[in-house]
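User: Could you go from structure to sequence for me? I need the amino acid at each position, not a summary. Structure tokens:
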């Protein structure tokens, strides 16, 4: 990372030092879509003017992106001015002092695995599934009976939150609003998404909830996997 790049990364993290700004950023991220100044102000429990000031500072820091859109759906004369909306920016902010290049070694590993053949890919998925199963067992607790679907989804969310997946309940399923491996998934989607799916399958197995399943359901800006109730005819 060059000096300018390091300064931008540090400035991005420093922008979150202010509590109101941090609350606004967290609210926008949790919504998973573009939000208006009014909505963000209500979510952070501050005035609209203060929210507008801090939201624009987050845009300047590269943490949020702004867009303009009419919320009424009306067009033409009398439709009013487009509202300024905010969503999480595409880039990421990370600082390591002294510099470390874990992203580089991850890319090298992914390149090697991609070219190593199906046997290696199966081994990766088996390891990911076993890791997920251990996570699920820890979340479930030793000797705890199998959890009902709603409790299993809550336990899965609690286990995945510290890993950066940003889980959120939506319409009875668990969506993962962030892929912690996004940069690799863009270039090695089959490898990374397959490992993610195996990880989530193992997690549900460890939680002991056969009424749930992990499925590939990629959506823009989200992890490629979702956790949802299994169709009745497909329950094991």
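Assistant: Here is the amino acid at each position, in order:
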């Amino acid at each position: 990372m060059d000096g300018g790049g390091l300064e931008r990364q540090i400035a991005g993290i420093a922008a979150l030092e202010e509590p109101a700004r941090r609350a606004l950023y967290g609210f926008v991220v949790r919504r998973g879509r573009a939000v208006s100044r009014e909505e963000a102000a209500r979510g952070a429990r501050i005035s609209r003017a203060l929210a507008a000031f801090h939201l624009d500072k987050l845009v300047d820091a590269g943490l949020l992106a702004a867009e303009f859109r009419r919320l009424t759906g009306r067009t033409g004369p009398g439709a009013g001015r487009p509202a300024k909306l905010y969503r999480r920016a595409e880039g990421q902010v990370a600082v390591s002092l002294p510099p470390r290049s874990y992203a580089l070694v991850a890319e090298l590993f992914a390149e090697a695995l991609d070219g190593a053949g199906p046997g290696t890919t199966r081994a990766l998925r088996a390891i990911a599934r076993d890791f997920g199963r251990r996570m699920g067992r820890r979340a479930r607790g030793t000797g705890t009976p199998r959890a009902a679907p709603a409790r299993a989804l809550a336990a899965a969310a609690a286990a995945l939150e510290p890993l950066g997946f940003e889980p959120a309940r939506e319409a009875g399923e668990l969506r993962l609003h962030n892929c912690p491996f996004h940069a690799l998934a863009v270039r090695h989607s089959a490898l990374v998404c397959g490992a993610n799916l195996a990880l989530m399958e193992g997690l549900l197995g460890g939680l002991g909830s056969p009424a749930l399943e992990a499925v590939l359901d990629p959506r823009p800006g989200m992890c490629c996997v979702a956790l949802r109730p299994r169709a009745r005819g497909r329950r094991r």
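One structural detail worth keeping in mind: The longest strand covers residues 64-69.
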